[in-house]
Amino acid sequence: MGQAQRSANKHESIIFAAALVAILSIAGCSNGPSSEEAGSADSASTSGQSFPSYYEVRMPNMYSPSTLFLPYIADKKGFYVAEGIKPVFTGVIGPGQLVAAVVAKDNDVGYLHVNRTINGVAAGAPIRAVVADSETSEDFPHMEFLVLDESPLKTPLDMVGKKVGINAVGGCNEYTPYGILKKLGIEDPRGSFEIVTVPPGNEEAALRSGAVDVVGFHGHPLDVFNNGGVRLLFDDYDVWGHEGGATPWYFHEDFIREKPEAVRRFVAAHAKASRWINENREEAKRIHSEWTEVPFEKVTLTKFADDGVIAEQSVQLWIDILKGYGELTVDLAVSDIYTNEFNQFSPEYRFGETDTLAGDNRAGD
Predict the structure, then answer these.
(1) Rounded distance, CA 74 to CA 105, Å?
(2) According to DSSP H, which parts of the chain are helical?
(3) What share of the chain is helix, strand, coil (3-state, %, to 5)?
(4) At what angle do helices 114-122 and 312-324 cross, to 10 degrees?
(5) How far apart are CA 160 and CA 286, in angstroms?
């Protein structure tokens, strides 16, 4: 199926090593839930231990308000409360600062594209991904790059020498256009086009005003297509198929060791919310629209990973990509980046076993 035809049907490195050292030197340790954090004295039991009725988990708000955000759905639909999690939204944090916020323990959990998790671990961040979020499918790509109908750009190779608008340098924003050019024969595509940073929500205006020749969107911007005059040039599915769009959630490893029960509950809530969203997309859009006050038609859909299971091949793909561009200079295994041990829907589920990352299954004091 051609790109132009498919577009009508689609619905959707971090440079902080020095700062990381400073953050690690001042960051305090996370203890068990306080009386406020624990809620009532009622408890659930795992491996014979008692735990608070709920755990607070501090997490960022969505930085791109038009992109469907799973935590908003999980909160409104009761998936968090059912699993004993109380989300505390800490506000919008820029993509390049999400890992640092978790390292500093200002947030308990972070997310976004897996390449940022990999770069964080490579720089020394003590983080581990525990549950998948969105991923790529043919009908719901992670990223789409659009041009105007009258644009002379007919194939991705025509981007060479042009202005390409992306939300942020680094991450899938930058590596997806690199990836398509490399696939089409440009051995090292860096520097082959001019990068223009476009704040989220301004992509359409940048394209229609001529500020950029090509612009990247996360997911399928249905409202932009409905406005007419645009067409798809390529998407990340064209580059890597299903494997390129992984966006897992990660915790500080201290949090994982000290509160494994909270991590298990968080993973369970996200896994169930992922399946619900995939089966109830229109209602999920409505909830997100009401939460963010973004018009319903502007909410961008995406495909969420089945039951929140992190795919090894997606993590390995990005390790290889970053190594290939010289961005990753240390040897990392996929096990350094993620674990599915907390996800009951994964064959790797081993919660409570003494040889897991969770150690001896200690929860908060």
Answers:
(1) 23
(2) 3-7, 17-26, 35-38, 70-76, 79-82, 98-103, 114-122, 171-183, 203-208, 222-227, 236-240, 253-258, 260-279, 281-292, 312-324
(3) 40, 20, 45
(4) 60
(5) 39
One domain for residues 253 and 201: no
| Same domain? 119 vs 256 | yes
At 79 the pLDDT is: 97
Q: Are residues 161 and 93 both part of a single domain? A: no
User: What's the whole-model pTM score?
Assistant: 0.80
Determine how β-strand 109-110 pairs with β-strand 249-252: antiparallel
The DSSP code sequence of 301-334 is P-EEPGGGPPPHHHHHHHHHHHHHTT---S---G
357 domain-assigned: no
Query: 159 by DSSP, 3-state: which?
Result: helix
Coil, strand or helix at 210? coil
Please name the residues in contact with 106: beta carbons below 8 A apart, sequence gap of 6 or more: 58, 90
Match 């549950």 to its residue by tokens: 131
Sign of the dihedral defined by the CA atoms of residues 36, 90, 305, 189, in that order: negative
Q: Of 148, 176, 150, 140, whose CA–CA distance to 9 is shortest?
A: 140
Burial class (CB in 10 A: 0-12, 13-18, 19+), 75: buried
- Give mean pLDDT in consecutive 10-residue pieces for the chain, a chain of 365 residues: 42 39 34 37 35 87 92 97 96 93 98 95 98 95 96 98 93 93 95 95 96 95 94 97 95 97 97 97 97 93 94 97 92 98 96 56 34
- List, edge to edge, every strand of the sheet that includes 127-131: 109-110, 249-252, 127-131
Left if phi > 0, otherwise alpha if psi is -120 to 50, otherwise beta: which for 318?
Answer: alpha
3-state secondary structure of 217: strand
Q: Are residues 238 and 276 in the same domain?
A: no
Question: What does the alpha-carbon distance between residue 83 and residue 86 come to, in Å, rounded to a whole number?
Answer: 9
Do 122 and 74 fall within a single domain?
Answer: yes
Confidence at residue 2, expressed as pLDDT on a 0 to 100 scale: 44
> 161 and 193 in contact (C-beta within 8 Å)?
yes
Q: Sign of torsion, CA 168 107 252 353?
A: negative
DSSP bridge partners of 86: 56
**Encoding tokens for residue 221?**
């911007």
